[in-house]
Amino acid sequence: MHITKFTIDKTRLLPILTKKLSSVTQSKAPKSLSNRQLFRQILPPHETLREIEALNLGKPRKRNSSPFKKKVNIIEKKKLERRLGDLTLEQEEHLELPHLSFFAGAKIPTSFPPERVQELCFVGRSNVGKSSLINALADTTVVRTSDKPGLTQQINFYAAGNMFNMVDMPGYGFAYVKDEERLKWKELIEIYISQRKTLKRIFVIVDARHASTPEPPEPKLGLKIADKEFISMLDRKNIEFQIILTKCDMVIAPDLARRHTIVKEQLQVYKNAIPQPMMVSARRKAGIYKLRKLLLTIIGGLERAREVANKKKEHRLADINNKSKTPLHKILKKFTNKKTPRYFYVKRKRERKSLKKE
């Protein structure tokens, strides 16, 4: 039996192999880094991370769910959600703002109220949490809030007692209104900012979730175009302003620290900017005490607020001491005298038994 040998011509394969390898190398050419990769490469300072941890900011990471997990107590969960991030500081001083009340709204410059006391202004893009922040600072629900952008359609003035006014501005940028209406808001805001003499400081509110949104031209990280245009206008008019990052409970701590670092670096260009942005969460009240203390310092009412807090503390201690002096039998008597439905049920049952025996 004759066996034929098969041979492979290697020279015929060479051109094919070289062609394929060259196409692979061309497809794997080095590309520019994406926005996400650039964002992840930022190393925030340890001080920022420590501040976030101390104020209890940042979104908690999800843990693996277990089938044997205990049922969550809803009441305890709500208590934890509403807890103060800086509780130790609150326990030390427990500073509060005076009672907040709405007293004026302006859609045209002639409707501005007279300049009697100092004013603090809160402005930002639509739906960044300006109204919710004012409510959290004053511990009230006077300011109307909504998830729909563009609820605040005029300049609203709120009086914090006789101490100062808090001013809630309509949002610039996107809103469910016509372009003509938004242009009117912009003109109204600029007139108020440039003409108001009692205005002490402007707080520009920025959503912490959107502080690293891609937008041309490069660099594609940091504040949005609408925010940059507004703070550039403030800088040209030599008006002092400060950035506040809100909704910080919806971003994980490392990303929040990176966004804080980006915004802080971008503010170095503006000469009238306060170099340190603040971080707060109105929902969890985290960082609110620190901001409240800053407001009182700006208007010169910190000592007065401390005196009020100390007086309230003394009254609370006096009430506790008076209650502790009452005899125990008087305290118990209040509870024993109350006849519950169970008491009447047992009483009737005993009466029936006695009737049957007779």
Describe the structure.
The protein is of the alpha/beta class and 358 residues long. It has a domain of 228 residues: Rossmann fold (3-Layer(aba) Sandwich), CATH 3.40.50. Helices cover 45% and strands 12% of the residues. It contains 13 helices and 7 strands. The protein has a 7-stranded mixed sheet, with helices on both faces. Helix 3 packs across helix 9 and helix 6 packs across helix 10. The protein is globular. About 11% of the residues have low confidence. Keywords: GTP-binding, Hydrolase, Magnesium, Metal-binding, Nucleotide-binding.
CATH architecture identity of the domain at 80-307: 3-Layer(aba) Sandwich
User: What's the end-to-end separation, in Å?
Assistant: 125 Å
| Uncertain residue segments | 5-30, 84-91, 213-219
Task: Tell me the name of the CATH class of the domain at 80-307.
Answer: Alpha Beta
Residues in β-strands, percent: 5-15%
Note the main sheet.
7 strands, mixed
InterPro entries: G_ENGB_dom, GTP-bd, GTP-bd_ribosome_bio_YsxC, P-loop_NTPase
Domain EngB-type G: 116-301
Keywords: GTP-binding, Hydrolase, Magnesium, Metal-binding, Nucleotide-binding
Protein name: P-loop containing nucleoside triphosphate hydrolase protein
